[in-house]
Protein backbone atom coordinates (compact mmCIF):
# COMPACT_ATOMS: atom_id res chain seq x y z
CA UNK A 1 0.00 0.00 0.00
CA UNK A 2 1.44 3.39 -0.97
CA UNK A 3 1.87 6.38 1.31
CA UNK A 4 0.19 9.41 -0.24
CA UNK A 5 1.78 12.84 -0.11
CA UNK A 6 -1.11 15.09 -1.12
CA UNK A 7 -0.98 18.38 -3.00
CA UNK A 8 -4.52 19.78 -3.07
CA UNK A 9 -5.72 22.89 -4.86
CA UNK A 10 -8.78 23.96 -2.81
CA UNK A 11 -9.67 26.59 -5.45
CA UNK A 12 -9.88 24.11 -8.34
CA UNK A 13 -13.33 24.05 -9.90
CA UNK A 14 -14.30 26.85 -7.53
CA UNK A 15 -14.36 24.36 -4.66
CA UNK A 16 -17.38 22.40 -5.89
CA UNK A 17 -15.67 19.11 -4.98
CA UNK A 18 -15.20 19.88 -1.29
CA UNK A 19 -17.17 16.78 -0.23
CA UNK A 20 -14.88 14.37 -2.09
CA UNK A 21 -11.85 16.16 -0.62
CA UNK A 22 -13.24 15.58 2.86
CA UNK A 23 -13.58 11.86 2.07
CA UNK A 24 -10.04 11.67 0.69
CA UNK A 25 -8.71 13.18 3.92
CA UNK A 26 -10.08 10.13 5.76
CA UNK A 27 -7.83 7.80 3.75
CA UNK A 28 -5.63 6.02 6.33
CA UNK A 29 -2.38 6.00 4.33
CA UNK A 30 -1.99 9.76 3.82
CA UNK A 31 1.51 10.66 4.96
CA UNK A 32 1.23 14.43 4.42
CA UNK A 33 -1.33 16.95 3.19
CA UNK A 34 -0.52 20.28 1.52
CA UNK A 35 -3.05 22.86 0.30
CA UNK A 36 -1.93 25.36 -2.33
CA UNK A 37 -2.27 29.07 -1.60
CA UNK A 38 -1.31 30.76 -4.89
CA UNK A 39 -0.46 30.14 -8.54
CA UNK A 40 2.84 28.26 -8.72
CA UNK A 41 2.58 26.95 -5.14
CA UNK A 42 1.93 23.38 -6.31
CA UNK A 43 5.20 23.45 -8.27
CA UNK A 44 7.11 24.68 -5.21
CA UNK A 45 5.55 22.01 -2.99
CA UNK A 46 6.28 19.26 -5.54
CA UNK A 47 9.92 20.27 -5.89
CA UNK A 48 10.26 20.24 -2.10
CA UNK A 49 8.76 16.75 -1.94
CA UNK A 50 11.11 15.54 -4.67
CA UNK A 51 14.06 16.79 -2.62
CA UNK A 52 13.01 15.40 0.75
CA UNK A 53 11.02 12.17 0.34
CA UNK A 54 12.98 8.97 0.86
CA UNK A 55 9.97 6.67 1.34
CA UNK A 56 10.09 3.92 -1.35
CA UNK A 57 6.28 3.58 -1.19
CA UNK A 58 5.61 7.31 -1.66
CA UNK A 59 3.09 8.50 -4.24
CA UNK A 60 2.29 12.17 -4.84
CA UNK A 61 -1.49 12.50 -4.94
CA UNK A 62 -2.63 15.57 -6.89
CA UNK A 63 -6.12 16.92 -6.26
CA UNK A 64 -7.00 19.74 -8.67
CA UNK A 65 -7.34 20.58 -12.33
CA UNK A 66 -5.04 20.19 -15.30
CA UNK A 67 -3.06 23.28 -14.25
CA UNK A 68 -2.36 21.86 -10.80
CA UNK A 69 -1.28 18.55 -12.32
CA UNK A 70 1.04 20.42 -14.69
CA UNK A 71 2.62 22.36 -11.82
CA UNK A 72 3.24 19.20 -9.79
CA UNK A 73 4.77 17.37 -12.76
CA UNK A 74 7.12 20.28 -13.48
CA UNK A 75 8.01 20.67 -9.81
CA UNK A 76 8.90 16.99 -9.44
CA UNK A 77 11.07 17.11 -12.55
CA UNK A 78 12.99 20.16 -11.36
CA UNK A 79 14.89 17.89 -8.97
CA UNK A 80 16.71 14.87 -10.38
CA UNK A 81 15.98 11.67 -8.50
CA UNK A 82 17.30 8.17 -9.13
CA UNK A 83 13.70 6.93 -8.90
CA UNK A 84 10.91 9.35 -9.87
CA UNK A 85 7.97 9.86 -7.53
CA UNK A 86 4.77 8.45 -9.09
CA UNK A 87 1.79 10.76 -9.52
CA UNK A 88 -1.79 9.84 -8.59
CA UNK A 89 -4.61 12.16 -9.59
CA UNK A 90 -8.12 13.17 -8.55
CA UNK A 91 -9.66 15.62 -11.09
CA UNK A 92 -11.46 18.52 -9.41
CA UNK A 93 -10.90 21.25 -12.02
CA UNK A 94 -13.27 22.77 -14.56
CA UNK A 95 -11.82 21.24 -17.74
CA UNK A 96 -10.24 17.97 -16.55
CA UNK A 97 -8.91 17.06 -20.00
CA UNK A 98 -6.20 14.72 -18.70
CA UNK A 99 -8.75 12.70 -16.71
CA UNK A 100 -11.05 12.60 -19.73
CA UNK A 101 -8.22 11.49 -22.01
CA UNK A 102 -7.31 8.49 -19.85
CA UNK A 103 -10.93 7.64 -18.98
CA UNK A 104 -10.40 8.39 -15.30
CA UNK A 105 -13.94 9.70 -14.87
CA UNK A 106 -15.22 12.11 -12.24
CA UNK A 107 -13.46 12.92 -8.98
CA UNK A 108 -15.63 10.34 -7.19
CA UNK A 109 -14.89 7.66 -9.81
CA UNK A 110 -11.17 8.45 -9.76
CA UNK A 111 -11.07 8.16 -5.96
CA UNK A 112 -12.88 4.82 -6.09
CA UNK A 113 -10.47 3.59 -8.76
CA UNK A 114 -7.45 4.80 -6.78
CA UNK A 115 -8.25 2.32 -4.01
CA UNK A 116 -7.74 -0.54 -6.49
CA UNK A 117 -4.46 0.63 -8.07
CA UNK A 118 -1.50 -1.64 -7.24
CA UNK A 119 1.28 -0.47 -9.56
CA UNK A 120 2.53 2.42 -11.65
CA UNK A 121 2.14 2.82 -15.38
CA UNK A 122 4.39 4.85 -17.65
CA UNK A 123 2.62 7.58 -19.60
CA UNK A 124 3.99 9.89 -22.26
CA UNK A 125 4.64 13.53 -21.40
CA UNK A 126 5.78 16.34 -23.68
CA UNK A 127 8.76 18.62 -23.14
CA UNK A 128 9.75 21.96 -24.62
CA UNK A 129 12.97 23.90 -24.20
CA UNK A 130 13.46 27.46 -25.42
CA UNK A 131 11.51 30.68 -25.63
CA UNK A 132 7.81 30.18 -24.94
CA UNK A 133 7.73 33.18 -24.76
CA UNK A 134 10.45 33.36 -22.07
CA UNK A 135 13.32 30.89 -21.91
CA UNK A 136 12.02 27.85 -20.07
CA UNK A 137 12.05 24.08 -19.90
CA UNK A 138 8.49 22.87 -19.43
CA UNK A 139 6.70 19.54 -19.37
CA UNK A 140 3.05 18.94 -20.22
CA UNK A 141 0.50 16.13 -20.06
CA UNK A 142 -2.15 17.48 -22.45
CA UNK A 143 -1.06 20.18 -24.87
CA UNK A 144 0.77 23.38 -25.65
CA UNK A 145 -1.01 25.90 -27.81
CA UNK A 146 -0.10 29.08 -29.65
CA UNK A 147 -2.67 31.45 -31.09
CA UNK A 148 -6.40 30.79 -30.98
CA UNK A 149 -6.65 28.13 -28.26
CA UNK A 150 -4.28 30.08 -26.01
CA UNK A 151 -6.37 33.22 -26.52
CA UNK A 152 -9.46 31.21 -25.54
CA UNK A 153 -7.70 30.10 -22.35
CA UNK A 154 -6.82 33.70 -21.51
CA UNK A 155 -10.36 34.91 -22.25
CA UNK A 156 -11.85 32.14 -20.11
CA UNK A 157 -9.54 32.75 -17.16
CA UNK A 158 -10.22 36.48 -17.19
CA UNK A 159 -14.00 36.26 -17.05
CA UNK A 160 -16.11 35.85 -13.95
CA UNK A 161 -18.45 33.62 -15.96
CA UNK A 162 -16.09 30.65 -15.51
CA UNK A 163 -16.46 30.82 -11.73
CA UNK A 164 -20.25 31.02 -11.99
CA UNK A 165 -20.44 28.06 -14.36
CA UNK A 166 -18.09 26.05 -12.13
CA UNK A 167 -20.58 26.45 -9.29
CA UNK A 168 -23.25 24.97 -11.57
CA UNK A 169 -20.98 22.10 -12.62
CA UNK A 170 -20.75 23.48 -16.19
CA UNK A 171 -17.19 24.79 -16.15
CA UNK A 172 -16.30 23.45 -19.60
CA UNK A 173 -19.12 25.57 -21.10
CA UNK A 174 -17.07 28.68 -20.33
CA UNK A 175 -14.48 27.50 -22.89
CA UNK A 176 -17.10 27.17 -25.58
CA UNK A 177 -18.47 30.66 -24.96
CA UNK A 178 -14.94 32.09 -25.08
CA UNK A 179 -14.38 30.42 -28.46
CA UNK A 180 -17.02 32.63 -30.08
CA UNK A 181 -15.69 35.78 -28.40
CA UNK A 182 -12.09 35.15 -29.42
CA UNK A 183 -12.61 34.15 -33.05
CA UNK A 184 -13.07 37.72 -34.31
CA UNK A 185 -10.13 39.05 -32.28
CA UNK A 186 -7.53 36.45 -33.24
CA UNK A 187 -5.45 37.11 -36.37
CA UNK A 188 -3.45 34.64 -38.43
CA UNK A 189 0.35 34.44 -38.08
CA UNK A 190 3.36 32.75 -39.63
CA UNK A 191 4.70 29.59 -38.07
CA UNK A 192 7.74 27.61 -39.22
CA UNK A 193 8.57 24.05 -38.18
CA UNK A 194 11.81 22.12 -38.50
CA UNK A 195 10.59 18.53 -38.21
CA UNK A 196 13.40 16.07 -38.81
CA UNK A 197 14.53 16.76 -42.36
CA UNK A 198 11.33 18.63 -43.23
CA UNK A 199 11.09 22.41 -43.22
CA UNK A 200 7.43 23.46 -43.06
CA UNK A 201 6.05 26.98 -43.37
CA UNK A 202 2.53 27.89 -42.33
CA UNK A 203 1.96 31.51 -43.41
CA UNK A 204 -1.63 31.79 -42.16
CA UNK A 205 -1.69 29.74 -38.96
CA UNK A 206 -4.59 30.48 -36.65
CA UNK A 207 -4.32 27.65 -34.13
CA UNK A 208 -1.14 25.70 -33.36
CA UNK A 209 -1.50 22.90 -30.82
CA UNK A 210 1.06 20.31 -29.76
CA UNK A 211 -0.99 17.51 -28.30
CA UNK A 212 -0.24 14.44 -26.20
CA UNK A 213 -3.81 13.13 -26.00
CA UNK A 214 -7.29 13.53 -27.43
CA UNK A 215 -8.72 16.51 -25.57
CA UNK A 216 -8.11 20.17 -24.88
CA UNK A 217 -10.25 23.15 -23.88
CA UNK A 218 -12.53 21.26 -21.50
CA UNK A 219 -13.51 18.28 -23.64
CA UNK A 220 -12.85 19.36 -27.24
CA UNK A 221 -11.49 16.36 -29.16
CA UNK A 222 -8.60 18.02 -30.98
CA UNK A 223 -7.02 14.72 -32.03
CA UNK A 224 -9.13 11.54 -31.75
CA UNK A 225 -6.86 8.51 -31.56
CA UNK A 226 -4.07 10.24 -29.63
CA UNK A 227 -2.94 8.13 -26.68
CA UNK A 228 -0.75 9.02 -23.69
CA UNK A 229 0.40 5.39 -23.62
CA UNK A 230 2.20 5.94 -26.93
CA UNK A 231 5.61 7.61 -26.90
CA UNK A 232 4.91 10.33 -29.46
CA UNK A 233 3.53 13.84 -29.95
CA UNK A 234 1.45 15.35 -32.74
CA UNK A 235 0.69 18.86 -33.89
CA UNK A 236 -2.61 20.18 -35.20
CA UNK A 237 -2.49 23.45 -37.16
CA UNK A 238 -5.59 25.25 -38.40
CA UNK A 239 -5.32 28.07 -40.92
CA UNK A 240 -7.42 31.22 -40.64
CA UNK A 241 -10.85 30.65 -42.18
CA UNK A 242 -14.21 32.40 -42.50
CA UNK A 243 -16.59 32.35 -39.56
CA UNK A 244 -19.00 30.03 -41.40
CA UNK A 245 -16.16 27.63 -42.22
CA UNK A 246 -15.04 27.82 -38.62
CA UNK A 247 -18.50 26.93 -37.29
CA UNK A 248 -18.70 23.93 -39.61
CA UNK A 249 -15.20 22.85 -38.66
CA UNK A 250 -15.85 23.36 -34.96
CA UNK A 251 -19.04 21.28 -35.11
CA UNK A 252 -17.03 18.46 -36.68
CA UNK A 253 -14.35 18.87 -34.04
CA UNK A 254 -16.88 18.48 -31.24
CA UNK A 255 -18.57 15.51 -32.91
CA UNK A 256 -16.19 12.92 -34.32
CA UNK A 257 -12.87 14.36 -35.45
CA UNK A 258 -14.15 15.24 -38.92
CA UNK A 259 -12.29 18.55 -38.67
CA UNK A 260 -9.10 16.74 -39.67
CA UNK A 261 -10.58 16.27 -43.15
CA UNK A 262 -10.71 20.04 -43.77
CA UNK A 263 -8.07 21.42 -46.15
CA UNK A 264 -7.36 24.21 -43.68
CA UNK A 265 -6.54 21.75 -40.86
CA UNK A 266 -3.19 19.96 -40.79
CA UNK A 267 -2.01 17.06 -38.59
CA UNK A 268 1.74 16.60 -38.25
CA UNK A 269 3.55 13.81 -36.39
CA UNK A 270 6.45 15.42 -34.55
CA UNK A 271 9.99 14.08 -34.58
CA UNK A 272 12.18 14.33 -31.51
CA UNK A 273 14.07 17.61 -31.57
CA UNK A 274 11.53 19.34 -33.83
CA UNK A 275 11.71 23.12 -33.52
CA UNK A 276 8.93 25.71 -33.75
CA UNK A 277 9.34 29.39 -34.60
CA UNK A 278 6.59 32.02 -34.30
CA UNK A 279 7.90 35.56 -34.77
CA UNK A 280 4.61 37.40 -34.34
CA UNK A 281 3.52 38.20 -30.81
CA UNK A 282 0.93 35.58 -29.87
CA UNK A 283 -0.61 34.14 -26.69
CA UNK A 284 0.50 30.73 -25.45
CA UNK A 285 -0.95 28.09 -23.16
CA UNK A 286 0.29 24.91 -21.52
CA UNK A 287 -2.22 22.39 -20.13
CA UNK A 288 -4.83 25.13 -20.01
CA UNK A 289 -2.67 27.66 -18.17
CA UNK A 290 -1.41 30.89 -19.71
CA UNK A 291 2.19 31.16 -20.87
CA UNK A 292 1.80 34.84 -21.70
CA UNK A 293 2.15 36.78 -24.95
CA UNK A 294 5.31 36.90 -27.01
CA UNK A 295 7.32 35.24 -29.75
CA UNK A 296 8.09 31.51 -29.62
CA UNK A 297 11.17 29.48 -30.52
CA UNK A 298 11.55 26.13 -28.81
CA UNK A 299 12.60 22.51 -29.26
CA UNK A 300 10.18 19.64 -28.71
CA UNK A 301 10.83 16.32 -27.00
CA UNK A 302 8.91 13.69 -25.06
CA UNK A 303 9.55 11.02 -22.45
CA UNK A 304 7.70 8.77 -20.02
CA UNK A 305 6.75 9.42 -16.40
CA UNK A 306 5.32 7.00 -13.78
CA UNK A 307 1.67 7.56 -12.84
CA UNK A 308 -0.28 5.72 -10.13
CA UNK A 309 -3.54 5.45 -12.06
Describe the structure.
The protein has 309 residues and is of the alpha+beta class. It has two domains: 3-119, Rossmann fold; 128-302, Tumour Suppressor Smad4. The chain contains nine helices and 15 strands. The strands form three sheets. Strands 5, 6, 7, 8, 9, 12, 13, 14 and 15 form a nine-stranded antiparallel β-sheet that branches. A four-stranded parallel β-sheet has the order 2-1-3-4, sandwiched between helices. Strands 10-11 form a two-stranded antiparallel ribbon. The longest helix is centred in the C-terminal third of the chain and has 13 residues, at 243-255. The chain starts with a strand and ends with a strand. InterPro entries: ATP-NAD_kinase_N, Diacylglycerol/lipid_kinase, Diacylglycerol_kinase_cat_dom, Lipid_Phosphate_FormReg, NAD/diacylglycerol_kinase_sf, YegS/DAGK_C. This is Diacylglycerol kinase family protein.
Shape category = globular
Average pLDDT score: 92
**CATH level 1 name of the largest domain:** Mainly Beta
Number of β-strand runs = 15
- The count of domains is 2
Topology of this protein?
Elements: E1 3-8, H1 18-25, E2 30-35, H2 41-52, E3 58-64, H3 66-77, E4 87-91, H4 97-101, H5 107-114, E5 121-131, E6 135-140, E7 143-147, H6 148-158, H7 161-167, H8 173-183, E8 189-195, E9 198-211, E10 215-216, E11 220-221, E12 233-239, H9 243-255, E13 265-270, E14 275-286, E15 289-307
Parallel strand pairs: 1-2, 1-3, 3-4
Antiparallel strand pairs: 5-6, 5-15, 7-9, 7-14, 8-9, 8-14, 9-12, 10-11, 12-13, 14-15
Helix pairs in contact: 2-3, 6-8
Amino acid sequence: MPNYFVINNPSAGNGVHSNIVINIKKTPNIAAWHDTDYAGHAMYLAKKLAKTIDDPTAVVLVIGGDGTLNEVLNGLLQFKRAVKLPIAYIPTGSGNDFARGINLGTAEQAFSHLKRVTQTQLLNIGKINGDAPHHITKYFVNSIGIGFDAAVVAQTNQTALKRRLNKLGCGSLSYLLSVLCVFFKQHDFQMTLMNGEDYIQMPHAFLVTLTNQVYFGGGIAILPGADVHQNELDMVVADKMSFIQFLVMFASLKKNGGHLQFKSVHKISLARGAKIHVRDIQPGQIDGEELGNGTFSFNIDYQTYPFWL
